[in-house]
Design goal:
mainly alpha, globular, 176 residues
């Protein structure tokens, strides 16, 4: 690591760490994700010398998304292990702070978003909640802008069908 890379990643951390944190909260449905945020910036630092970064925010979101997917895989593996002893170490309960932080509508919406298939969840979080443009979302996910827009439309329809609400209410509940 050279000094330039260290200074750049430090600036990105100061500028984007809260955005990465919020993205991971939405994406994982958890608030205990400080380690995932830290891992995002560690991986970014390691990769930035080999990668030309045009838009650091979307690049960091892509790294964070991959880390969250890796974390989910690890959790699924631990839950799958037949040894009952290991399953006691995985808690699916919300802490009191988490329960208080989210009002009932948001909690239900987040639960619905987390139950959607991953492509719908990804695009809803990035476009609808994080307010990235179609182009930025396409860059994070490695999709075309048309696919982003179509998937967003289908994801909103899926939420509407589960909740029987308008598009505006879905997005308003998610970001307020």
């Amino acid at each position: 690591m050279d000094d330039h890379s260290g200074a750049r990643i430090e600036q990105w951390f100061l500028t984007y760490s809260q955005d990465v944190y919020r993205f991971l909260v939405y994406y994982t449905g958890r608030t205990d994700i400080d380690d995932l945020v830290q891992e995002t910036f560690i991986r970014a630092l390691k990769a930035m010398q080999e990668t030309e970064v045009e838009n650091p925010k979307t690049w960091l979101f892509a790294i964070a998304r991959n880390i969250a997917i890796d974390e989910r895989r690890k959790t699924k593996l631990i839950n799958w292990l037949p040894d009952i002893f290991l399953q006691h170490f995985v808690s699916h309960d919300k802490t009191p702070e988490e329960s208080l932080m989210l009002n009932e509508n948001k909690r239900l919406l987040y639960e619905m978003i987390n139950q959607l298939k991953s492509s719908y969840r990804d695009v809803l979080i990035l476009r609808g909640i994080k307010r990235l443009s179609s182009k930025e979302t396409a860059e994070v996910l490695g999709w075309t802008e048309a696919k982003v827009n179509l998937t967003l439309h289908r994801a909103i329809k899926a939420i509407q069908n589960k909740r029987h609400v308008s598009i505006a209410e879905v997005m308003n509940d998610a970001i307020t």
